[in-house]
Amino acid sequence: TGYNKDNETNWLNFELAEVNQSLIDYYRGLIKFRKAHPAFRHATPSDYQFFDTPDSLLVGFQLGGEESQYLVYMNGSRANTQKVTLPVGKWGVLIDGSKAAAEPIRRIRVKDLEIPPGSGMVLVKQ
């Protein structure tokens, strides 16, 4: 277990916080997102609807019910961008490969969306 390791293993170098500010901001956004969207904390198996995808390295599912609906896509490929067709509706991006937030960081205005390699997205129906 990590709590019982030597100082070299458990050492936190706070001087690296400035260098890694974008990563720290991303984690802060993830925490705010999770607090603001209870569907990701209290979902039951029946709340998930997984999509058939053409590539085994692409996972996509819809989460939610009448109150709020979310789309989650994760691209496990290190080389290929994955293209997905969004269900009908207006969608806002809550999380992408570089930002995470409790409120949409941008709106999707296209029907087909590209998920970059090694990345994912969480969208909310507007």
Task: Give an overview in words.
By secondary structure, the chain is α+β, with helices and mostly antiparallel strands. Helix content is 19%, strand content 32%. The chain has three helices and eight strands; from the N terminus they run αααββββββββ. The chain has helices at 7-10, 21-36, 39-42, and strands spanning 48-50, 58-64, 69-75, 82-85, 91-95, 106-108, 112-115, 119-125. The chain has a six-stranded antiparallel sheet with strand order 1-2-3-8-5-6, covered by helices on one side. β2 (58-64) and β3 form a beta hairpin. The longest helix has 16 residues, at 21-36. The protein is globular and about 50 Å long. The model has no long low-confidence stretch (mean pLDDT 91).
